[in-house]
Design goal:
This protein has about 100 residues and is mostly helical. The protein has a single domain, classed as Uncharacterised protein YqeY/AIM41, N-terminal domain (Hypothetical Protein Yqey, Chain: A, domain1), CATH 1.10.1510.10. The protein contains 4 helices and no strands.
Amino acid sequence: MSLKEIVNRDFKIAKESNDERALRVLRTIIASIIIAETPDGRTIRELTPEDEVNLLQNLIKQKKESSDNCIKNGKEDYAKMLQEEIKIIEKYLSLVSFS
């Protein structure tokens, strides 16, 4: 099962259960997948498992950098939210890393 399939399945589950945190993270992952699949804005390409891993690693890196900046600027609540989002993304990283 591809990352896209897993995320779409989990998005439906999160939507039914009104899990706002999961929905927010899954929307971010879905948007990143769409951007990666259409690098020129028109042609859709299938992501390889390596592409999926890189995509998730980049999201984690971005969230960690944002979290660090929030801590430096005294926004600990927002930094905590970003750390929780990182944990959710890491769950998907472990799934695609072992596929």
